[in-house]
Amino acid sequence: MEEIQAITAVHHPVRRRIVDYLGLYGASQVTTLARALDQQVGSISHHLRMLERAGVVERADDPNSDKRTSWWKPARRSFTWSAEDFGDSPSDALLAREAERVNIATQLDRLKAWHRSKPQRSDPEWSRAAFSTDTLTWATAEELTALSEALRDTLDAWRAGIDTGDDAVRRPVFVFAHGFPTTP
Hints:
Layout: H1 4-10, H2 13-25, E1 28-29, H3 30-37, H4 41-53, E2 57-60, E3 71-74, H5 90-116, H6 118-122, H7 124-129, H8 141-160
Antiparallel strand pairs: 1-3, 2-3
C-alpha cells in the first residue's frame, strides 16, 4: 500500500510536473528544472524537499563532480493506490480521494490540451499515432484487477523496449487508461 505522504506529495501541480520531468529526462539540476517548468529555483528546491521526504525523489550525484549544484532523480516510477486502502483513517481516505480527483483532472487536462494543440491539427504522423480506446464488457473484480496488472506490465515492457540510443525523433508521450464498474 502506498504511503499517504507520497500520494499527496505527487498530486501538487508543481510537484507532479517535477516528477514527470525527472521521469522523462532523468537526473536534473534544480536550475534546469526551474527553467524547464518556468518556476523559481527556491520554489523548485522546496518542492523537491517535499518529494524527498515522501520518498518520491532522491538526490543524485553531480555528473560533473562539481558539488556546487543540486541534482535530483526519481526514486520510483509509478504509484498505485485506492482510497479504500485507507479505510482505517477517514482523513487519509479523504486525502487519497482528493488525489484521485486531481490525478483524473490532470489526465483529462492533458488530453484536452492535445486536442487543442497545433501538432494535433498540423502533424498527420502524430495525429495518426495518437489513439483512444475503450470497451464495455462484463467482469469480476478479480478480472478487472488482472487487466490492470496486464496493462501495467504491457506499458512497462513497451517503455523498456524503446531504444533511446538511436537518432529517431521522440516526443514525450502520455498514455493513460481507466477501468471501472459502470452502468450502460
